[in-house]
Specification:
The complex is a heterodimer of chains A (243) and B (205). Helix content of chain A is 36%, strand content 26%. With 243 residues, chain A is an alpha/beta fold. The radius of gyration of chain A is 18 Å and the shape is globular. With 205 residues, chain B is an all-alpha fold. Chain B starts with a helix and ends with a helix. Classes of the chains: A alpha/beta (243), B mainly alpha (205).
């Protein structure tokens, strides 16, 4: 039995402007991300990657087709309900400026839980556990400015998936990091998704996109290609050794 | 590189016999270079003939072990610091295919170079994803460092290919902007039509 679908986009289109100024940012996009699955989106600038991510996170609504997060049809929700969906079910990791500089790592991770209505004490306890999942429980009292870029991104991943959140949207999360640190961040993102979340990753970096189960290629708002899911381990080994 | 240099490097640690050398060689290169035992013994014989290794004297136990001579040690040391020669560019099937794609006009129409590039990029990304999947597993293996480095070399090579394809695509798009656009699509854009180029490219490497 396959894992439940967390994010489903069906025949999604997004048009900006009207008449002669009409721009089709996305056209007929179908995409599914299941629990435990990380999907990467690649494509040149202006291909619709950001629009796709905004639609997936309920920051924007499609002009045609449907976007479903969990059981909620994003397009049918009003602005307040969408804000609530974003806050309760979706976590974001951006290239930088993810964390509130005036809060410690622990407070940053606890913040969404406190907004959920948890007591400060329970929020801190859950945030401590979340920091441990990204291997940073010893940096709980550190402020963002006193962390390395890689550590800050791992805190951002912990926060994105804290509490009931099961969908993480990552926009160039490794953009400002060196090769080894970027890889460490991808490894953490991958582990968190494996542990029970769905992830949608936008990146320019093929090596980081390669951490995904599938890589989808966008051009001019259309999905032009996809790697498909990975083959079995035997054939992988076979190919790597023969290469 | 040859097996010969690999053996000299291994023997700089300690004396070994042929079977041990073969095992160590395979283990430390992540199993990417399988040797048969005949190859191992032939290599040892040649190293002995060239005065680079010698049998360990008064070695009672088990099969005959070999150690480096002074000349052998000098060659082993020198090897680490001599850069690997980049060979004259091989006839790269992909580069040639793209060179032809931008010039050939089958039935008087231009080839859809974008589609050619896209199919190739998907294939390269698929390989990249698969190597990365293997690397994830290698990290959990305490002896995985050697294997993981071998995989990294495949990963960076595949990444370079993807970047090169992106570059070619931009160049071709620019060129198309300054010239009349070719008539479209000689190559189908369906995903299912993607050529499975892995096997032939694998043999080339």
């Amino acid at each position: 039995m396959s894992a439940p679908v967390v994010l489903r986009m069906t025949a999604v289109g997004r048009v900006h402007g009207h008449g002669a100024a009409e721009v089709h940012a996305l056209r007929g996009v179908d995409l599914e991300v299941r629990m435990g699955e990380l999907v990467a989106v690649m494509g040149p600038s202006g291909s619709g990657k950001s629009t796709l991510l905004n639609l997936a996170g309920g920051l924007d609504t499609p002009t045609s087709g449907t976007v479903t997060v969990g059981r909620d049809d994003v397009g049918s929700l009003d602005a307040v309900a969408r804000a609530r969906l974003r806050r309760k079910h979706v976590g974001y990791v951006f290239q930088d400026l993810n964390l509130v500089p005036a809060l410690t790592a622990l407070e940053n991770v606890a913040l969404p839980l406190e907004l959920d209505g948890l007591s400060a004490r329970r929020a801190r306890a859950e945030a401590t556990a979340a920091l441990a999942t990204v291997g940073l429980d010893d940096l709980a009292d550190r402020f963002p400015d006193d962390m390395s870029g890689g550590q800050a991104q791992r805190v951002a991943i912990a926060r994105a998936l804290v509490g009931p959140r099961r969908l993480v949207l990552a926009d160039e999360p490794t953009g400002a990091l060196d090769s080894v640190t970027g890889e460490a961040v991808m490894r953490v993102l991958r582990q968190r998704v494996d542990a029970g979340a769905a992830g949608l990753l936008v990146t320019h970096d093929a090596r980081h996109a390669a951490w995904a189960d599938r890589i989808v290629f966008l051009r001019d708002g259309v999905v032009v290609d996809s790697t498909g899911a990975a083959a079995g381990p035997d054939s992988l080994l076979h190919r790597a050794v023969r290469a | 590189m040859s097996v010969r240099q690999g053996f000299l490097a291994l023997l700089s640690e300690r004396p070994m016999h042929g079977y041990q050398l073969r095992q160590e060689f395979e283990a430390r290169t992540g199993g990417t270079w399988p040797l048969n035992i005949g190859q191992a013994y032939t290599t040892l014989q040649r190293l002995q003939r060239d005065g680079l290794v010698e049998p360990v004297a008064d070695d009672d136990e088990g099969p005959e072990r070999f150690r480096l001579t002074d000349a052998g040690r000098a060659e082993a040391d020198a090897w680490w610091l001599s850069p690997v020669e980049r060979k004259a560019p091989a006839r790269d099937e992909l580069a040639i295919k793209l060179a032809l794609a931008v010039t050939v006009r089958p039935d008087g129409h231009g080839v859809d170079v974008r589609a050619v590039i896209q199919h190739q990029r998907t294939e390269s990304l698929r390989a990249l994803r698969d190597y990365t999947l293997l690397k994830r597993d290698a990290a959990d293996d305490p002896d995985g460092l050697a294997w993981s480095l071998v995989l990294d070399s495949l990963i960076f090579a595949a990444e370079a290919e993807v970047r090169w394809l992106d570059h070619v695509e931009s160049i071709v798009a620019q060129a198309a902007g300054t010239r009349p656009a070719p008539a479209p699509a000689k190559v189908p854009t369906k995903i299912s039509a993607a050529p499975r180029a892995t096997a032939s490219r694998g043999e080339r490497r």
